[in-house]
């Protein structure tokens, strides 16, 4: 697959807000609706740790490293 050239106009966020990390929900649709409503310009993918340990950032960060033999 050939590489595409970069866009001619670089991304300019103009002080738009985004988010990172956990939200206190167990329902994904509730979390994504909140993000779409309040952060429409630069949405983020939330973690929902109340759904279980696989949603915690430590597990999400370390699991790929363990799987590739880094630990």
Question: Mind explaining what this structure looks like?
Answer:
This protein has a domain at 28-36 and 45-68. The protein is 31% helix and 0% strand. The chain contains two helices and no strands. It has helices at 28-38, 57-67. The mean pLDDT is 84. Residues 1-10 have a biased composition (Pro residues). Residues 1-22 are annotated as: Disordered.
List the helices and strands and how they pair.
Blueprint: H1 28-38, H2 57-67
Region (Disordered): 1-22
Biased composition (Pro residues): 1-10
The low-confidence parts are none
Structural class: mainly alpha
Counting DSSP E segments of at least 2 residues, the number of strands comes to 0
Overall mean pLDDT stands at 84
Strand percentage? under 5%
**SSE string:** HH
Instruction: Give the proportion of residues in helices.
Output: 25-40%
- State Rg: 17 Å
Distance between the termini: 33 Å
Largest sheet: none
Region (Disordered): 1-22
Biased composition (Pro residues): 1-10
Structure, briefly:
The protein has two helices and no strands.
Keywords:
71 residues; 2 helices
């Amino acid at each position: 697959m050939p590489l595409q050239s970069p866009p001619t106009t670089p991304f300019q966020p103009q002080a738009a807000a985004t988010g990172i990390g956990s939200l206190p929900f167990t329902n994904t649709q509730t979390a994504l609706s909140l993000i779409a409503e309040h952060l429409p310009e630069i949405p983020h993918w939330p973690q929902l740790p109340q759904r279980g340990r696989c949603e915690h950032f430590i597990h999400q960060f370390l699991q790929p490293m363990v799987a590739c033999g880094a630990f």
